[in-house]
Amino acid sequence: MVRQAHALDESPENASGRINRRQKRFSAKNPAEQFDGIFSCLENARKSLNLNRKISAGRIRDMEQYRILVVEDDPAIRRGMCDALENSGYKVCPCADGNAAAEAVRTEIFDLALLDVVLPGKSGFEILEILRRERAGTPAIMLTAVGGEAEKVRGLKLGADDYVVKPFSIVEVLARIEAVLRRSPERPKNLFAKIRLPAGELDTERREIAFPNGEKKSLTEKEFLFLRHVATHAGRIVSREEILTRVWEMDPRLVETRTIDTTLMRLREKLGEENSAVIETVRGRGYTWKK
Questions:
Q1: Helix or strand run (H / E) with residue 276
Q2: 107 — phi, psi (to 5°)?
Q3: Containing structural domain, residue 206
Q4: Residue 94: how many CA atoms within 13 Å on its side-chain side?
Q5: Where is the domain boundary, 186, 220, 250?
Q6: What is the pLDDT of residues 19-48, one digit of tens each?
Q7: What distance in Å separates the CA atoms of residue 251 and residue 253, rounded to the nearest whole number?
Q8: Rounded Cα distance, 80 and 78, in Å
Q9: What CATH number does residue 226 fall under?
Q10: Over the stretch 193-213, which tens digit does the pLDDT of each residue have?
């Protein structure tokens, strides 16, 4: 254990010195033995340096599961934040304006949003309102050059989890992101315990359809997620790309699948004719929940 700890703390210079000393020790041996000995020393030094890198990367590996939506119109600030986040192990989804951010909220997979307040197109406050309607449980941190109390209060009332005023330290932003992400698993996942159907209701806790006659039918995970996603976005067309992204967590650009059609066919059979009529297929565009 002592030798292993020493190896972990060894600097590249010390490792190089140790190799040179052993090279001298091997000089009296025949060429084959000398080569084998030097190769062994180099391999041990390489392993030592790699262990050092793994220890320093431990924190980064812990954060690899998180993806951050970065909405900032200033190219230098956006690039700097994205670089810092990626160097800390996060994945990023950058947006340069409010309209692109609004689309990303509906179609991209991410765990937290960093929203600049003043943006071309839709403002950060408008994006926050869309975020709360579309995916209420996703945390958001507002970034702004306006440090007035009224602006902060407005953002917090709209559902922002934190507020950072420019100019800011990227270390501070990273610390706030980690703090917000630690709290986010405590958020309720099911915002609608019951979803009403023409003839019955969907129990989101039990993931089953309850009919007026007392009959109940259980749904598979994807059947339930598909039904809940379309139902909670009533009044607009949900594209197949959005379904693949948000329900199946697939990149629609990389897959060609009929799994949505198969899942919907099974779901309609379980819902029955009257209930399945609320899910309308809009040819070439997607699906909508008829109110």
A1: helix 259-276
A2: -120, -20
A3: 194-289
A4: 16
A5: 186
A6: 444 444 444 445 444 434 433 443 443 444
A7: 5
A8: 5
A9: 1.10.10.10
A10: 688 899 999 998 889 999 999
State percent of the chain over pLDDT 90: 41
Nearest-Å Rg of the Cα atoms of the chain is: 27
- Residue 117 and residue 164 in one domain: yes
C-alpha–C-alpha distance, residues 251 and 208, integer Å:
28
pLDDT score, position 252: 77
Residue 245 banded pLDDT, cuts 50, 70, 90: confident
Residue-wise pLDDT for 133-157, tens only, equals 877 778 999 998 766 677 788 888 8
34, 56, 78 - which closes a domain: 56
Domains held by the chain: number: 3
Residue with tokens 């579309």: 134
Mark whether 65 and 157 lie in a shared domain.
Answer: yes
Question: Hunting for tokens 């000398």 — which residue is that?
Answer: 34
70 closest CA partner among 91, 87, 89, 93: 93
Calpha distance 68→104 (Å, rounded): 11
